[in-house]
Design brief:
With 332 residues, the protein is an alpha/beta fold. 39% of the residues lie in helices and 17% in strands. The protein has four domains: 100 residues, NAD(P)-binding Rossmann-like Domain (Rossmann fold, 3-Layer(aba) Sandwich); 31 residues, no CATH class; 49 residues, no CATH class; 120 residues, 3-Layer(aba) Sandwich (Cobalt-precorrin-4 Transmethylase, domain 1), CATH 3.40.1010.10.
Length: 332
């Protein structure tokens, strides 16, 4: 990852755009959605830019920028469509320690602007490291079709309800409430009742999910396995488990690499109410550790993977099909 994705706070900040024709207008229309004050320097502004200035959307200066014009800016866009002028603007910005984007010139830019799906305050940014902007736009179109227009209203309602939800302990109890809030709540007026249900639940119960990993291909994981991995509090794994698999877990999860069978860690973490996922490439390890969990009275499940399913099916139609092995009544 060459370009690290971040979200910049634009409230009460200045963003400077140099250029007044089509190249600059594409950026100005996007930046106008932010809360930044947009200052545009353009000796020959387009009619549309003059209209935006008249409406107060941007502040227009009909001249080239000087060094003092850039002081204090959060970002600078060089968008004159003239390489020499853009390079002069970039040099001015960098001399002041300001990040600059030279539009359509990846090598000369300090940052790039992703394709954006805007469901304010929900924002999805899609980048291809500047290598395939058309692909980014195609992905954007797919995401636009998936996310409902009212998603932003739901997120805003969640923001208003955040303080009330703080009565739930940090971690799994609070995540479980918000999952129900976003996935199952049909009427926002029912949010207090939903919160009361979660507050009234007994102490959270931990458990262990085993997943046999046979390679680094994340496409060979079932959807259920990916979901549980993404929700785990603790990831206990053999050090050789591939990084693409581990990257599917939450960043906040605790990662415990171990070379040997480590039933004590599993029992301790699950007994403390945490959801543990055990990644291993050894069926023998699974057998020994699940036996230890049985002895300790800890719930566990073995999750089937697509890789296991394919191996079973390759033996022919009469081969035994994989099942979820568990000592509990359900696998969530």
């Amino acid at each position: 990852m060459r370009h690290f994705p971040i979200f910049l706070d634009t409230r009460d900040r200045r963003i400077v755009v140099v250029g007044g024709q089509d190249v600059a207008m594409a950026k100005i229309r996007l930046l106008a959605r932010s809360e930044a004050r947009i200052e545009v320097f353009a000796p020959a502004p387009s009619a549309m830019l003059r209209t935006l200035a008249a409406e107060g959307t941007v502040q227009l200066f009909r001249r080239a920028p000087r060094t003092e014009d850039l002081v204090g800016a959060a970002l600078v866009y060089a968008a004159t469509d003239d390489d020499a002028t853009d390079q002069q603007v970039a040099a001015l910005a960098r001399g002041l320690g300001i990040a600059v984007n030279v539009v359509d010139n990846l090598a000369a830019s300090d940052f790039i602007t992703p394709a954006i799906v805007d469901r304010d305050p929900v924002t999805v940014a899609i980048g291809t490291e500047g290598t395939a902007p058309v692909l980014a736009r195609l992905i954007k179109a797919e995401v636009e079709a998936i996310l409902p227009a009212a998603l932003g209203q739901l997120a805003q309602a969640a923001g208003r309800f955040r303080e009330a939800a703080s009565v739930l302990p940090q971690g799994r109890p609070r995540r479980a409430f918000w999952a129900d809030f976003f996935l199952r709540l049909r009427n926002l007026d029912d949010a207090p009742h939903l919160l009361a249900q979660h507050v009234g639940r007994e102490g959270q119960k931990g458990g262990v999910d085993f997943l046999l990993i046979g390679g680094s291909d994340t496409d060979l994981l079932t959807l259920a396995s990916r979901r549980i991995l993404a929700d785990a509090d603790v990831v206990v794994h053999h050090p050789d488990i591939a990084r693409p698999i581990l990257d599917l877990a939450r960043r906040e999860a605790r990662f415990v690499p171990t070379l040997a069978t480590d039933s004590a860690v599993l029992v301790a973490q699950a007994s403390a109410g945490r959801r543990v996922i055990r990644l291993t490439d050894s069926p023998a390890t699974l057998a020994m550790e699940s036996a230890a969990l049985n002895a300790a009275g800890v719930a566990w499940a073995e999750l089937p993977s697509v890789a296991t399913y394919r191996m079973c099916c390759s033996a022919g139609p009469t081969a035994p099909q994989p099942e979820t092995v568990t000592n509990r009544e359900y696998v969530s």
